[in-house]
Amino acid sequence: MEGGDEGIEILTDSKDMQQQSKAFDKLTDRVEDRQLDSSRVQTAMASIAADAEADANAQRMREKELAAVKINAGDIDIIANELEMDKKVAERTLREHKGDAVAAIRSLLH
């Protein structure tokens, strides 16, 4: 009878090993499916870099547009003094409103 008991244990161990093996295979299959291929990563990184460059170019163009706006230095002083703010902020707001002091003040107050 002892020999029969050993056979049951071996059979049970064998089934456990098969189940563990199947479970392990499922885990490794899932990881293989999710691995990224390098060309997709490179394409994504190139896209991100192109978007960042486009954003930087758009920002440079906006800064050039704002720098081209003619503003009155007296308006900057009035806005900065009356609203108690930095002159750079007042100048930027005035440029964004194409030199219109009233529109700049309204936007700063709202």
How is this structure best described in words?
It is a single chain. With 110 residues, the chain is mainly alpha-helical. Helices cover 85% and strands 0% of the residues. α3 packs across α4 and α4 crosses α5. It is elongated and about 90 Å long.
Strand content: under 5%
The first-to-last residue Cα distance is 93 Å
Order of helices and strands: HHHHH
The largest sheet is: none
Number of strands: 0
pLDDT < 50 stretches: none
Write down the Rg. Answer: 35 Å
Structural class: mainly alpha
Count of alpha and pi helical runs: 5
Compact overview of the structure:
This protein has 110 residues and is mainly α. The protein has helices at 2-34, 38-68, 73-82, 87-96, 101-109.
Defining key terms:
mainly alpha
Question: How does the SSE layout of this entry go?
Answer:
Layout: H1 2-34, H2 38-68, H3 73-82, H4 87-96, H5 101-109
Helix pairs in contact: 3-4, 4-5
